[in-house]
Amino acid sequence: MSLLTTSVVANAQSYYNVLKYGAKNDSSKLATTAIKNAIEAASKAGGGTVYFPAGKYLTGPIHLKSNITILIDAGAELHFSDNFDDYLPMVKSRYEGVDVTSFSPLFYAYKAENISIIGRGLIDGHGKKWWDFVEGYKEGQPRSKWQTTFDGLNKDIVLPDDPKQMKRGFLRPPFIQPMFCKNVLIEGITIRNSPFWTVNPEFCENVKVHAVTINNPHSPNTDGINPESCNNVHISDCHISVGDDCITIKSGKDEPGRKMAVPAENYVITNCTMLSGHGGVVIGSEMSGDVRKITISNCVFDGTDRGIRIKTARGRGGIVEEIRVSNIIMKNIKDQAIVLDMQYAKTNVEPVSERTPKFRNIHLSNITGQVNQAGYLNGLEEMPIENVTFNDINMEAKTGFSISNANLIEFHNVTVNTEIGPALKALNLTQLIVDGFKSYKPNTAAVVDLMNVSDAFIYNAFPVPATATYLKLSGKTTKNITLGNNNFGKIKAAVKKDGDVTENVNVISGDKGQ
């Protein structure tokens, strides 16, 4: 036998056509057992490709093993059953950052290596029945058999600060959830109608999601790609339109997340388009195990509620740091282009402890947008946001940047054309740099409005003649404000101070019209 013939035979033997194991491609019969048998056969041979030729398949959950590739060919459609019983027995899973035993995910793997779901075919989660059950649930109604089963399997789980979902005991399964896996590839497929989060790797290493299309309608919690507590993640060339966030980075919630203490780190997100969704790329609010070393680049958000959103709350703990965002276009953003919100859930001030989250070292550049609000940064009184920079940003916005409780904030070559209010409004800040900050469509408000801000340096401003006031100062703790190399010669007022500002503005050489 020639080497070529040997190669062809070996290649043919590595493919396991589900039709040969009893699956029907006319959706006339549940194919769960046939698919399982094909995977078992491939696994016994050391690995292989489980192949779905064109046609429609009806199936329950599919559990992958090491060295298994699921190949869904062009024209093939996998339709997952909406019979809840098909997703029993319950398996080890994670739900919104809490480790539980619950319904099997539709695609599931546990401590497997070298697994892939690839092809040009379609997978449909038929999520409506799942959505309807959750949205129709009322507190106090008799518990279903699935909830009773959940209760018995989760007596000792560590609960988050708000355990409402856990106590409900009916947790919809993610569509694709590999747990504690290595070398995971999801590529080329189209996914729709997920019951819950769509692509949700948990505690995985070396994950690649490439050229995937995700379409979920307006539906509860149907996020697109949510890699949680993973290491070395690459997301590229995806198109996402969903009922919640398009891409979200998470690392556990509250005490359960801190107990596991597995960070989300080394993520690269690039070349994606995102339409409907609560956020384009989101970090949190479940970030208790830390999120760090993340790059987001070359993406278009068109029609999402927000663009870049980083969120947390008291009780989470954890750190979000070393984040880089660049080359982003935002259009038709319904709320904010950029959000860093540490008060996602409204709580009272508390002493700094392991429950206190931190945001620091976050840098955004080369962003254009047509948005409702340019940006919203909201730190904690006891833990301000720290070291955030904005470079080469151009926004057309109804309102500008609003920043409170932060330190070390910088704007360089930023243009914000607002309809109402200041282009930049800051409250309770220290160490602010505003360099070449512009608004070409000034309104009656000052371009920059600072209240209780100290140690600010404002330079290289050249406001247009229609500007009424460039800088407004107020607040008893406003001090050490320095201006330099600005051209205020053609505007009505460079600076206006309220009576509670006791210090004079420092002016260094180069200012005109001050």
SS strand fraction: over 45%
Low-confidence stretches: 1-10
Major sheet, described briefly?
Answer: 29 strands, parallel
The helix count comes to 6
Proportion of helical residues: 10-25%
The gyration radius over C-alpha positions equals: 26 Å
Would you mind describing this structure in some detail?
This protein has 514 residues and is mainly β. It has 6 helices and 34 strands. It has a 29-stranded parallel beta sheet that branches. The N and C termini lie far apart (90 Å).
List the helices and strands and how they pair.
Blueprint: H1 3-13, E1 15-17, E2 26-30, H2 32-44, E3 48-52, E4 55-59, E5 62-63, E6 68-72, E7 76-80, E8 91-95, E9 98-102, E10 107-110, E11 113-119, E12 122-124, H3 128-135, H4 145-153, H5 164-168, E13 176-179, E14 182-187, E15 190-192, E16 205-210, E17 213-215, E18 231-236, E19 239-241, E20 247-249, H6 254-260, E21 264-270, E22 273-274, E23 279-283, E24 291-302, E25 306-311, E26 319-341, E27 358-378, E28 385-418, E29 424-435, E30 448-459, E31 469-474, E32 479-484, E33 493-497, E34 506-507
Give short descriptive properties of this protein.
514 residues, single chain, three-stranded parallel sheet, 10% helix, disordered N terminus, mainly beta, elongated, 6 helices
Task: State the gist of this model.
With 514 residues, the protein is mostly beta strands. The protein contains six helices and 34 strands. The model is unreliable at 1-10 (pLDDT under 50).
